[in-house]
Amino acid sequence: MRKLRVIHHMDLARMDRPADNTRERILRTATRVFAEKGYNRASVREICQAAGANGAAVHYHFGDKISLYREVLRPAAELTEIPDELRADDTPLRVGLEAYFRPLRTLANDRQMPHMHLLFMREQMQPTGMLTTGWSDFFRPRHEQLCRFLCRHCHAEVIDDAINQLALSLIGMGMMLFLKPDIVQAFAPGLTRDDNALEATLQRLTDQATVLVEMEAERRQQH
Protein backbone atom coordinates (compact mmCIF):
# COMPACT_ATOMS: atom_id res chain seq x y z
CA MET A 1 0.00 0.00 0.00
CA ARG A 2 1.37 3.39 -0.96
CA LYS A 3 1.98 5.67 1.97
CA LEU A 4 0.34 9.06 1.99
CA ARG A 5 2.66 11.96 2.68
CA VAL A 6 1.62 14.11 5.60
CA ILE A 7 1.85 17.79 4.76
CA HIS A 8 2.84 19.83 7.78
CA HIS A 9 2.22 23.53 8.30
CA MET A 10 5.86 24.31 7.52
CA ASP A 11 5.55 22.49 4.21
CA LEU A 12 2.51 24.59 3.34
CA ALA A 13 4.39 27.74 4.22
CA ARG A 14 7.23 26.74 1.91
CA MET A 15 4.77 25.98 -0.87
CA ASP A 16 3.13 29.40 -0.53
CA ARG A 17 6.41 31.27 -0.26
CA PRO A 18 8.03 32.47 -3.50
CA ALA A 19 11.37 30.98 -4.51
CA ASP A 20 14.09 32.20 -2.17
CA ASN A 21 16.71 34.16 -4.06
CA THR A 22 19.41 34.48 -1.44
CA ARG A 23 21.97 35.86 -3.86
CA GLU A 24 19.80 38.80 -4.92
CA ARG A 25 18.78 39.48 -1.34
CA ILE A 26 22.42 39.65 -0.26
CA LEU A 27 23.26 41.95 -3.19
CA ARG A 28 20.48 44.38 -2.32
CA THR A 29 21.44 44.41 1.34
CA ALA A 30 25.16 44.72 0.59
CA THR A 31 24.51 47.70 -1.68
CA ARG A 32 22.74 49.50 1.15
CA VAL A 33 25.26 48.57 3.87
CA PHE A 34 28.31 49.41 1.74
CA ALA A 35 26.71 52.74 0.79
CA GLU A 36 25.89 53.63 4.38
CA LYS A 37 29.14 52.49 6.00
CA GLY A 38 31.73 52.21 3.27
CA TYR A 39 33.70 49.12 2.37
CA ASN A 40 36.03 49.02 5.37
CA ARG A 41 33.39 49.47 8.07
CA ALA A 42 30.86 47.09 6.55
CA SER A 43 31.13 43.45 7.56
CA VAL A 44 30.01 40.28 5.85
CA ARG A 45 28.36 39.16 9.08
CA GLU A 46 26.28 42.34 9.27
CA ILE A 47 25.23 42.02 5.64
CA CYS A 48 24.16 38.40 6.07
CA GLN A 49 22.22 39.16 9.23
CA ALA A 50 20.42 42.07 7.61
CA ALA A 51 19.65 39.93 4.55
CA GLY A 52 18.40 37.04 6.68
CA ALA A 53 21.01 34.76 5.17
CA ASN A 54 23.42 32.21 6.56
CA GLY A 55 26.91 33.49 7.24
CA ALA A 56 28.35 31.13 4.65
CA ALA A 57 26.04 32.43 1.91
CA VAL A 58 28.46 35.16 0.79
CA HIS A 59 31.23 32.62 0.37
CA TYR A 60 28.91 30.30 -1.55
CA HIS A 61 27.49 32.92 -3.92
CA PHE A 62 30.36 35.40 -4.25
CA GLY A 63 33.55 33.98 -2.76
CA ASP A 64 34.55 36.71 -0.31
CA LYS A 65 33.87 40.30 0.74
CA ILE A 66 35.97 41.81 -2.05
CA SER A 67 34.17 39.76 -4.70
CA LEU A 68 30.81 40.77 -3.23
CA TYR A 69 31.83 44.43 -3.34
CA ARG A 70 32.94 44.14 -6.97
CA GLU A 71 29.58 42.61 -7.84
CA VAL A 72 27.78 45.46 -6.09
CA LEU A 73 29.83 47.97 -8.06
CA ARG A 74 29.01 46.33 -11.36
CA PRO A 75 26.86 48.83 -13.26
CA ALA A 76 23.36 47.84 -14.22
CA ALA A 77 23.24 46.12 -17.59
CA GLU A 78 20.71 48.68 -18.82
CA LEU A 79 23.29 51.43 -18.40
CA THR A 80 26.00 49.72 -20.41
CA GLU A 81 24.09 48.09 -23.24
CA ILE A 82 24.23 49.87 -26.58
CA PRO A 83 20.83 50.14 -28.31
CA ASP A 84 20.73 48.76 -31.83
CA GLU A 85 19.24 52.04 -33.01
CA LEU A 86 22.47 53.87 -32.18
CA ARG A 87 24.49 51.50 -34.35
CA ALA A 88 22.35 51.81 -37.49
CA ASP A 89 23.41 54.52 -39.94
CA ASP A 90 19.84 55.34 -40.98
CA THR A 91 18.27 55.77 -37.55
CA PRO A 92 16.40 59.10 -37.29
CA LEU A 93 17.60 61.44 -34.55
CA ARG A 94 14.56 61.19 -32.31
CA VAL A 95 14.31 57.41 -32.63
CA GLY A 96 17.95 57.04 -31.58
CA LEU A 97 17.56 59.37 -28.61
CA GLU A 98 14.42 57.56 -27.47
CA ALA A 99 16.36 54.30 -27.56
CA TYR A 100 19.24 55.85 -25.64
CA PHE A 101 16.96 57.10 -22.85
CA ARG A 102 14.85 53.93 -22.77
CA PRO A 103 16.74 52.25 -19.87
CA LEU A 104 15.84 55.18 -17.63
CA ARG A 105 12.31 53.79 -17.36
CA THR A 106 13.71 50.80 -15.48
CA LEU A 107 16.00 52.93 -13.33
CA ALA A 108 13.15 55.18 -12.28
CA ASN A 109 11.62 52.29 -10.34
CA ASP A 110 14.90 50.92 -8.96
CA ARG A 111 15.03 51.63 -5.24
CA GLN A 112 18.74 50.82 -5.20
CA MET A 113 19.68 53.90 -7.20
CA PRO A 114 20.07 56.24 -4.18
CA HIS A 115 22.34 53.67 -2.53
CA MET A 116 24.36 53.22 -5.72
CA HIS A 117 24.79 56.96 -6.07
CA LEU A 118 26.00 57.25 -2.46
CA LEU A 119 28.33 54.31 -3.03
CA PHE A 120 29.90 55.96 -6.07
CA MET A 121 30.29 59.18 -4.10
CA ARG A 122 32.09 57.25 -1.36
CA GLU A 123 34.41 55.75 -3.95
CA GLN A 124 35.31 59.21 -5.18
CA MET A 125 36.05 60.50 -1.67
CA GLN A 126 37.43 57.30 -0.14
CA PRO A 127 38.58 55.18 -3.09
CA THR A 128 39.14 51.51 -2.47
CA GLY A 129 40.93 51.08 -5.78
CA MET A 130 38.36 48.59 -7.03
CA LEU A 131 36.05 50.99 -8.80
CA THR A 132 38.73 52.40 -11.08
CA THR A 133 39.73 48.97 -12.36
CA GLY A 134 37.88 48.62 -15.62
CA TRP A 135 35.37 51.30 -14.59
CA SER A 136 35.68 53.36 -17.75
CA ASP A 137 35.44 50.17 -19.80
CA PHE A 138 31.85 49.74 -18.63
CA PHE A 139 30.66 53.11 -19.91
CA ARG A 140 33.13 54.08 -22.64
CA PRO A 141 31.60 51.93 -25.45
CA ARG A 142 28.11 53.34 -24.86
CA HIS A 143 29.43 56.90 -24.66
CA GLU A 144 31.50 56.53 -27.82
CA GLN A 145 28.60 55.00 -29.72
CA LEU A 146 26.39 57.91 -28.69
CA CYS A 147 29.12 60.28 -29.92
CA ARG A 148 29.26 58.51 -33.30
CA PHE A 149 25.48 58.76 -33.55
CA LEU A 150 25.67 62.47 -32.73
CA CYS A 151 28.40 62.96 -35.34
CA ARG A 152 26.11 61.62 -38.03
CA HIS A 153 23.33 64.02 -37.08
CA CYS A 154 25.61 67.02 -36.52
CA HIS A 155 27.58 66.48 -39.75
CA ALA A 156 30.79 66.13 -37.76
CA GLU A 157 33.64 64.14 -39.25
CA VAL A 158 35.33 63.31 -35.93
CA ILE A 159 34.38 63.13 -32.26
CA ASP A 160 35.68 66.47 -31.02
CA ASP A 161 35.23 68.33 -27.73
CA ALA A 162 31.88 69.77 -28.77
CA ILE A 163 30.47 66.33 -29.57
CA ASN A 164 31.79 64.94 -26.29
CA GLN A 165 30.26 67.87 -24.41
CA LEU A 166 26.94 67.32 -26.13
CA ALA A 167 26.98 63.60 -25.27
CA LEU A 168 27.85 64.31 -21.63
CA SER A 169 25.08 66.90 -21.46
CA LEU A 170 22.51 64.37 -22.68
CA ILE A 171 23.77 61.83 -20.17
CA GLY A 172 23.57 64.41 -17.38
CA MET A 173 19.97 65.28 -18.22
CA GLY A 174 18.91 61.71 -17.68
CA MET A 175 21.06 61.15 -14.60
CA MET A 176 19.55 64.07 -12.70
CA LEU A 177 16.01 62.91 -13.41
CA PHE A 178 16.39 59.22 -12.72
CA LEU A 179 19.57 58.61 -10.73
CA LYS A 180 18.70 61.24 -8.11
CA PRO A 181 15.09 60.35 -7.23
CA ASP A 182 15.39 62.14 -3.88
CA ILE A 183 15.84 65.47 -5.67
CA VAL A 184 12.98 64.72 -8.06
CA GLN A 185 10.72 63.83 -5.14
CA ALA A 186 11.65 67.05 -3.34
CA PHE A 187 11.14 69.39 -6.30
CA ALA A 188 8.79 67.70 -8.78
CA PRO A 189 7.40 64.32 -7.62
CA GLY A 190 4.86 64.35 -10.42
CA LEU A 191 7.57 63.68 -13.00
CA THR A 192 7.77 60.00 -12.05
CA ARG A 193 4.52 59.56 -10.14
CA ASP A 194 3.20 56.71 -12.31
CA ASP A 195 3.73 55.09 -15.70
CA ASN A 196 1.88 57.83 -17.57
CA ALA A 197 3.85 60.60 -15.87
CA LEU A 198 7.09 58.72 -16.47
CA GLU A 199 6.32 58.32 -20.17
CA ALA A 200 5.53 62.02 -20.49
CA THR A 201 8.79 62.89 -18.74
CA LEU A 202 10.78 60.65 -21.08
CA GLN A 203 9.11 62.21 -24.12
CA ARG A 204 9.95 65.73 -22.91
CA LEU A 205 13.50 64.61 -22.22
CA THR A 206 13.76 63.32 -25.79
CA ASP A 207 12.29 66.58 -27.13
CA GLN A 208 14.84 68.63 -25.21
CA ALA A 209 17.71 66.40 -26.29
CA THR A 210 16.60 66.65 -29.91
CA VAL A 211 16.70 70.46 -29.73
CA LEU A 212 20.25 70.41 -28.31
CA VAL A 213 21.49 68.17 -31.10
CA GLU A 214 19.77 70.25 -33.77
CA MET A 215 21.32 73.42 -32.32
CA GLU A 216 24.79 71.87 -32.45
CA ALA A 217 24.20 70.82 -36.06
CA GLU A 218 23.10 74.37 -36.94
CA ARG A 219 26.11 75.86 -35.15
CA ARG A 220 28.45 73.71 -37.22
CA GLN A 221 26.78 74.66 -40.46
CA GLN A 222 27.19 78.35 -39.65
CA HIS A 223 30.90 77.86 -39.12
Explain what this protein looks like in three dimensions:
- The N terminus is likely disordered.
- The protein has 14 helices and no strands.
- It is mainly α and 223 residues long.
- Helix 2 packs across helix 5, helix 2 runs parallel beside helix 10 and helix 11 crosses helix 12.
What descriptors fit this protein?
223 residues; mainly alpha; 0% strand
H and E string: HHHHHHHHHHHHHH
Distance between the termini: 92 Å
Biggest pleated-sheet summary? none
Task: Kindly state the number of beta strands.
Answer: 0
> In DSSP terms, counting alpha (H) and pi (I) runs of 4 or more, how many helices?
14
Helix content: over 70%
* Overall pLDDT: 83
Radius of gyration: 22 Å
| Helix/strand class | mainly alpha
Proportion of residues in extended strands: under 5%
Q: So what's the overall shape?
A: elongated
Poorly predicted regions: 1-19
Question: Gist?
Answer:
By secondary structure, this protein is an all-alpha fold.
Give a topology summary.
Blueprint: H1 9-16, H2 22-41, H3 44-51, H4 57-61, H5 65-73, H6 77-80, H7 84-87, H8 93-101, H9 104-108, H10 113-125, H11 135-154, H12 161-178, H13 181-187, H14 195-222
Helix pairs in contact: 2-3, 2-5, 2-10, 8-14, 11-12, 12-14
